[in-house]
Design a protein that fits this description.
Elements lengths: L16 H14 L12 H8 L3 H13 L3 E2 L7 E2 L42 H13 L15 H15 L8 E4 L2 H12 L7 E7 L3 H9 L2 E9 L2 E2 L11 E4 L13 H14 L2 E5 L24 E6 L11 E4 L2 H14 L5 H12 L2 H28 L3 E3 L7 E6 L6 H9 L6 E2 L11 E5 L5 H19 L4
Parallel strand pairs: 4-5, 4-7, 7-8, 8-9
Antiparallel strand pairs: 1-2, 3-10, 5-6, 9-10, 11-12, 12-14, 13-14
Helix pairs in contact: 1-3, 2-3, 4-10, 5-10, 6-7, 6-9, 11-13
């Protein structure tokens, strides 16, 4: 067992002692310095050695267990988990050439997926930041120089995603765009060649329909790669090697599963070996109800094969039209050139106001507030659906995010026909089969963000009254 005394001292001036303990152990495990099966120091020994509270170490160990680095059983010591130990270092595979280059569903009804609750938006604080910046923009902010985003916002975003998502980057690698779709389109224009129709993109299946549509418009040939309880199984990919692999590893859309550590490492190794770029869409992973958010795939990528995308549409409001991408260094010049050509920029006063909003701590405070609200709504929705519709639907756990997947227990039900009938009664559900590229599974996708806990039971009861007639073929 490695002596704790041999480990680097914690940097107390930078704070986040829990995160430092977590990262020290995670990185040693990934480098093979702590092999599978090795017993790790007890939380008490580690706390005394580092001079921190035992709870700090306990929380760090819990994160490592949740992400698959450690395992323990009742009455036994905690040990390093067994998983592939391919070193996450060294030279990346040659990058692809850097050449520039939806399904509709009803809106406005009950359980509509994909939308946050904007009624709780912190209007006063935002208006103050926006008004102040609108009156006092500096001259050099008003030119063409910062196509990728103003420095202040890049730094504020990096500070946030480093602390909460484990992202490792420089401010220069962050590019500000109006939406997740704009980020996907921008990266597609860099990675997919106009004179090579049929560039291969591997997509987790089921997956985000808008991403599928955007990549098709960029000329990609989409290859579905199945997801299960551990996320995308890259070993199931078939055909020519892809140039791009699209995933939502921390909170898979739409199933809600978290990609296992083994699958994460396999995906990174595959991308490096095949010269592919992994597009990590971290659309609503800020909201976790059963545990703290899982660290981003980008944070353990030492080969610069991951482009990370985040958005403020789910955490603040879609109408702000602000998202961002963390670009691998080797693709940054081509991405910035493509962005200048495409004009996918966010107004400078919005960027400056958001930078102030984040630096003042308003954004994190809003996230904490909304995480509590959404946790209540998710729990109420899952309970109501299981109580009223459990005979027909297998409802997901709802451990995070703004939607929960469910599956018809009778696999023969046509979920798209069912959704058409149900939505005519004031709902806005989505058929799970519409999110598949390959063989599909019948089910319903529910949004929880605007479902008040006290209204969930009545809404689920209304839904339950419609399902038997669908099941019996009366539609």
């Amino acid at each position: 067992m490695t002596s704790v005394a041999q480990w680097p001292a914690l940097d107390r001036s930078s704070g986040d002692l829990e995160g430092q303990v977590y990262r020290l152990m995670r990185d040693r495990i990934l480098r093979g310095q702590m092999p599978a099966g090795q017993r790790v120091p007890s939380t008490r020994v580690m706390a005394v050695s580092f001079g921190v509270a035992r709870s700090t170490v306990v929380n760090a160990y819990d994160r490592l267990k949740a992400e698959g680095y450690l395992h323990s059983t009742s009455g036994a010591a905690t040990r390093v988990a067994a998983f592939p130990t391919t070193p996450l270092s060294g030279q990346a595979a040659p990058p692809p050439p850097n050449l520039p280059r939806v399904t509709e569903f009803k809106r406005g009804g009950l359980f509509e997926p994909g939308l946050p609750d904007v009624s709780t938006f912190p209007h006063a604080a935002w208006a103050r930041c926006l008004g102040a910046r609108g009156r006092s923009l500096r001259v050099h902010d008003l030119g063409y120089s910062d196509h990728g985003g103003i420095r202040e916002l890049r730094e504020a975003i990096l500070e946030h995603v480093s602390a909460t998502r484990g992202v490792v980057a420089r401010p220069e690698q962050i590019v500000i765009v109006p939406s997740t779709g704009a980020a996907i389109g921008l990266l597609a224009s860099v990675l997919l060649q106009p004179d090579h129709p049929g560039d291969i993109v591997w997509m987790e299946d089921p997956g985000y329909a808008s991403a599928q549509a955007i990549l098709r418009m960029a000329g990609a040939s989409l290859v579905p790669v199945p997801c299960n309880a551990e996320g995308i199984d890259i070993a199931q990919g078939t055909g020519p090697s892809p140039r791009l692999i699209y995933v939502t590893p921390s909170h898979q859309y739409p199933t809600g599963v978290t990609m296992s550590l083994q699958r994460r490492l396999a995906l990174l190794e595959f991308a490096r070996a095949n010269g592919a770029i992994v597009l990590e869409d971290d659309y609503d992973s800020e909201f976790q109800y059963a545990s703290r958010p899982i660290a981003a795939l980008q944070g353990i990528d030492h080969g610069e094969v991951v482009a990370y995308i985040g958005t403020f549409s789910k955490t603040l409001a879609p109408g702000l039209r602000v998202a961002y991408a963390v670009i691998p260094s080797r693709l940054l010049a081509a991405t910035e050139a493509a962005q200048r050509l495409r004009g996918a920029v966010v107004p400078v006063h919005m960027q400056a106001a958001l930078a102030d909003f984040m630096r003042e701590g308003r954004f994190r405070a809003h996230l904490r507030h909304m995480n509590g609200i959404y946790a209540e709504r998710m729990a109420a929705t899952v309970e109501a659906l299981r109580r009223h519709c459990g005979d027909w639907l297998d409802v997901g756990e709802g451990a995070g995010g703004l939607q929960v997947a469910s599956w018809f227990r009778d696999a023969g039900i046509d979920d798209q026909a069912a959704v058409q009938r149900i939505n005519a009664e004031g709902f806005a559900l989505r058929a799970m089969s519409s999110l598949y590229l390959g063989p599909s599974r019948s089910g319903l996708l529910f949004g929880i963000a605007r479902m008040l806990p006290e209204a969930a039971g009545a809404a689920a009861a209304r839904l339950a009254s419609a399902i038997p007639s669908i099941k019996n073929g009366d539609d």
